[in-house]
Each structure stands twice: as C-alpha cells, then as structure tokens.
Amino acid sequence: MKILVTGANGMLGKDLCPLLEKHGHEVIKTDIEDLNIRNKPMVMDFVKANKPDLIIHGAAYTAVDKAEEEKELAYEVNYHGTKNLAKAAKEVDAKIVYISTDYVFDGTKETPYTPKDKPNPKNIYGFTKLEGELAVQDETPKHYIVRTSWLYGKNGKNFVETMITLAQKNPKLKVVADQFGCPTYTIALAEGIIKLIEDNAKFGTYHICGGGQTNWCDFAKKILEFAGINTPVEPINTTGFPQLAIRPKYAVMDNEGRCPSWEDSLKQYIERR
C-alpha cells in the first residue's frame, strides 16, 4: 500500500513510518517543509501527483496552552489543514486516518469514554481537533478517526522524559493527581493504527490509547519506579498548577483492547531508552 504520512518528523511519525515500511508499505514522508497543509492548492497538487492509497494525517497544532492565545493558527492547522487533506483524499479515492485527541471530551463522565460518546471540548485545542474530525466526516466516507491521549515516545519532548529529568535534579516532585487519562506509547499507537488499516476495519471512530487509567501523579511514580529513581512524588490538585487551557478531569477512553496496558507499554519504553 502507498501511504502518505503528514507530520512524519513528529514524535509519532518517526516511530510510525519505519513500522509501516517494515510491514511492506511504501511511505511518502511529509512535514511542513514538504507539504503545508494550510495551502489548499499545494495539498491537492501533491496528493494528485503522488496518488496514495491511504493518508495518515498526524500533523497538527498541539500546543494546548498556547492555542488559547493563537486560536486562529490552531484553527487553520487543525481544521482547514485537515479539511484540505480530506478533500484531496476523496479526489484520488484514498482512505484517510485522522489522529485526534481525548481533549474532544469535557471530562465530566465517570466511566471510560467510548467512540459513541458525544464530544464537548473545553479548550481551543480540543475544539479545533473536533472541528478536524467533523471536516473528515463531511468530506469523505473512507475515514478512520483515531483518538489517542497522553502520548510519549523517544522522538519528542514528553512527560516521561520530563519526570526523569526533574527527578534527577530535585529532592522531590509535586504532580497533579486529579486529572485522569490513558498514557500512550507512540509504538503502541503506531501498531494499533497499522492493525486497523491492515485488517480493513470498518470506517469510523476508534480510541487507540494505553489500556487502563491513571492520574499524572501515579504515572510519574510508575515512571520513576521503572527507571530505578527513588525521588518522592507528592500529589497536588490542579489548582496548585494553574494553566491557560482547561484540562478535562476525567479523559479516560475505552480502547477496546487495541493497545496493551499503559504500565506494560511504559515498562517497554523505559527498557528501550
């Protein structure tokens, strides 16, 4: 299969592209230098020239707090950029995988969110990603919307590396304990995406994230445990760590067994560091 990947130089893209090639797929790797997704004519020309069978759209504006101040840019990238790619995909009869987020939910539910639950984002980032989902749904029936969460991997700045670095420099850490979600290793997400497309799964919305749930504080404790670091971690409430963007308190998603448990993936990541 010929697969065009946007955001190929990102944290997910750098793990996803080699795995796709390992599975025998031809991969067209693009990032903003090669393909500005906000430029509709460029997107259409590029896709028509390359004629991919599938587009995996991983490029996005992901700075959650900064998006509160750069609303137009976040909207341009996450909505218009996605709409451009979905239009182009339909033009060449290609399937499209759109990587979305748990932040499309408001976090008021008390049980894991399923793909059928109604989104209700509470920050600009989540709103623009939801608009991207709707654009994909409007433009082409041949789509997979893949929501993921709390992503970490070896090719980008992430919570795991931040905790390890801080723990090596400080006598103790204070970490938020009243936000719950599903930590997801980029390799696990990439493998879940590949399985989805190779199994010719039914088009629609899927949650591909770490299995189970935790909060940021317990996630930090498990990171340090697996890394062999004894720095104590103290739980605090969100009010003690103010941020521009509102985060959902409970963003746990039901992954229907599409990824290993978050603990198993974290252990694998730490062992590979």
Would you kindly provide a written description of the structure presented here, covering whatever features stand out?
By secondary structure, the protein is an alpha/beta fold. It has helices spanning 13-22, 40-50, 71-91, 124-139, 159-169, 186-198, 216-227, 262-272; strands at residues 2-6, 26-30, 54-57, 95-101, 143-148, 151-152, 173-176, 180-181, 184-185, 204-207, 214-215, 233-236. Strands 2-1-3-4-5-10 form a 6-stranded parallel sheet, sandwiched between helices. The chain has a two-stranded parallel ribbon with strand order 6-9. It has a two-stranded parallel ribbon with strand order 7-12. The mean pLDDT is 97.
The level-1 CATH class of the largest domain: Alpha Beta
Looking across the biggest beta sheet, what order are the strands in?
2-1-3-4-5-10
Strand content: 15-25%
Shape: globular
SSE string, helices as H and strands as E: EHEHEHEHEEHEEEHEEHEH
Q: Describe the main β-sheet briefly.
A: 6 strands, parallel
What's the CATH topology label of the largest domain?
Rossmann fold
CATH architecture of the largest domain: 3-Layer(aba) Sandwich
The CATH homology group name of the largest domain? NAD(P)-binding Rossmann-like Domain
Determine the mean pLDDT: 97
What is the overall number of helices? 8
Give the beta-strand count: 12
Rg measurement, Å: 18 Å
Helix content: 25-40%
Structural class: alpha/beta
Low-confidence stretches: none
- Number of domains in the coordinates? 2
End-to-end Cα distance: 31 Å
Secondary structure: elements and pairs:
Layout: E1 2-6, H1 13-22, E2 26-30, H2 40-50, E3 54-57, H3 71-91, E4 95-101, H4 124-139, E5 143-148, E6 151-152, H5 159-169, E7 173-176, E8 180-181, E9 184-185, H6 186-198, E10 204-207, E11 214-215, H7 216-227, E12 233-236, H8 262-272
Parallel strand pairs: 1-2, 1-3, 3-4, 4-5, 5-10, 6-9, 7-12
Antiparallel strand pairs: 8-11
Helix pairs in contact: 1-6, 2-3, 3-4, 5-7, 7-8
